[in-house]
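Known limitations

C-alpha cells in this collection are predictions and should be treated as such. Users comparing against experimental data should check residue numbering before alignment. To illustrate the layout, the record for DinB family protein is reproduced below. The input appears on top and the generated C-alpha cells appear beneath it.
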Amino acid sequence: MEIKPAVHRIFDQLTFLLENLTNEEYSKIAEVLSCSSIGQHVRHSLAFFTCLFQGIPLGVVNYDERERDVFLENNTLEALGCLSQLSEQLEGLTDNPVLVLKQSYDQTSIEVATNLSRELIYCIEHTVHHLALIKIGLKEFKPDLVLPKGFGVACSTIKYRQSRQVSA
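Generated C-alpha cells:
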C-alpha cells in the first residue's frame, strides 16, 4: 500500500511527542486548547485509526462509535503501546478493501462507499489537524521543546512552502 509511509510519518510525529512529555504535561488541561489536554487530542487521533482498523474485517467504519479511553489520554506509555499496535496492524494491511463509512448528523445517519486507502488519508489529515493544535498547546507549557520539522503540517503545505522558496 502506497499510503503506509505517510501513516508512519504521522505515527513518528506522535511517538516523538509522547517520548518528550511527562504524564503530567501530557494530561495537563490547556486553556488555549479549549480546556482540553494534549493527551485528549492524541487519544482522539489514535481512536480514529483504531476504529478504522477494527472496521476492516466488518467492511464498515463508524468513527462515532470510537472508544474514549481515559487511561490512554493520561498515560504516555499507554499511548505509545497503542501506537505500536496500530503500526503492527498497518504493516499487516496488503489490500485496499471497499468499505462503508457510517456517519450520523443530528437525526440523520448516512452510509457512504469508501475504501481503506481513502480512510487512511482521512485519518492522516485528521491527525495532522490535531498535531497542529497540540503544537499550539505546547507553546503554553513546554515552549523549549524543539519539534521535528513539519510537525503538524500537512504534506501539501510543506510542498507549497518548498515551491515558494525555490521560486524566490
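For this record: Helices lie at 4-19, 23-27, 38-55, 70-74, 76-91, 116-141, 155-167. The beta strands are 29-30, 36-37, 60-61, 98-105, 108-115. Please report discrepancies through the issue tracker.
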